[in-house]
């Protein structure tokens, strides 16, 4: 299972300013469809990278972290996410995701911003903050067709949605 950490965590911690962990993950894992899984991983990686770059261009410290579609252990994913947020000094999570909703026949690109609760001040050794309720959601829906999938460009969309999210990030 691949884990994509797209910055140097030590470098991220050097800055005293709070950061946002830009956490991306895929859905739609199909063990017998490696090409399809690669498609979703590519969409999510590109989308996440561009969201993080938009935040950085807007003056925010953003630490990107992307898990592949086969990372389906939610508890393990959450521990990885929270550990990275703590080690990077982040106080918010911006979740990025590109996935299909086969029942609705939709391709979805979504951002959500969550506060990290208990991320400041002393904690018990080994304890992690908790993730609060999302205080911002931005979602774009597209028809789930072969033509749309073939033309979908997650990078430019991530750049746009990242710029839109900048206004919603707190201190």
Note the topology.
Layout: E1 4-5, H1 9-14, E2 19-25, H2 34-57, E3 61-67, H3 74-88, E4 90-101, E5 106-117, E6 130-131, E7 136-143, H4 146-151, H5 154-166
Helix pairs in contact: 2-5
Structure keywords:
171 residues; alpha/beta; Rossmann fold; 5 helices; 37% helix
Written account of the structure:
- The protein is an alpha/beta fold and 171 residues long.
- It has one domain (19-167): Rossmann fold (3-Layer(aba) Sandwich).
- Helices cover 37% and strands 29% of the residues.
- It is built from 5 helices and 7 strands; from the N terminus they run E-H-E-H-E-H-E-E-E-E-H-H.
- The chain has helices at 9-14, 34-57, 74-88, 146-151, 154-166; strands at 4-5, 19-25, 61-67, 90-101, 106-117, 130-131, 136-143.
- Strands 1, 2, 3, 4, 5, 6 and 7 form a 7-stranded mixed β-sheet that branches.
- Helix 2 (34-57) links the parallel strand 2 and strand 3.
- Helix 2 packs parallel to helix 5 (154-166).
- The longest helix is centred in the N-terminal third of the chain and has 24 residues, at 34-57.
- It starts with a strand and ends in a 5-residue tail after the last helix.
- The relative contact order is 0.21.
Query: Which term fits the overall shape?
Result: globular
> Helical content, roughly?
25-40%
CATH architecture: 3-Layer(aba) Sandwich
CATH topology (fold) name = Rossmann fold
- Rg over alpha carbons: 16 Å
Number of strands: 7
Can you tell me the number of structural domains? 1
* CA-CA gap between termini: 34 Å
Average per-residue pLDDT, rounded, comes to 87
Assign the CATH class: Alpha Beta
């Amino acid at each position: 299972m691949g884990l994509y950490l797209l910055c140097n965590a030590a470098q991220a911690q050097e800055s005293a300013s709070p950061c946002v962990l830009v956490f991306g993950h895929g859905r739609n894992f199909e063990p017998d469809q490696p090409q399809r899984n690669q498609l979703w991983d590519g969409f999510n990686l590109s989308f996440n990278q561009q969201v993080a770059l938009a935040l950085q261009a807007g003056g925010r410290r953003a630490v990107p972290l992307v898990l592949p579609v086969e990372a389906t252990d939610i508890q393990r994913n959450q521990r990885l996410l929270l550990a990275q947020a703590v080690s990077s000094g982040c106080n918010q999570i911006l979740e990025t995701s590109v996935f299909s909703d086969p029942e609705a026949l939709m391709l979805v690109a979504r951002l959500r911003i969550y506060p990290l609760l208990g991320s400041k001040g002393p904690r018990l050794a080994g304890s992690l903050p908790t993730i609060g309720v999302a205080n911002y959601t931005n979602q774009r829906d597209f028809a789930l067709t072969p033509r749309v999938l073939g033309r979908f460009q997650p990078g430019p969309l991530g750049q746009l949605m990242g710029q839109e999210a900048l206004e919603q990030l707190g201190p």
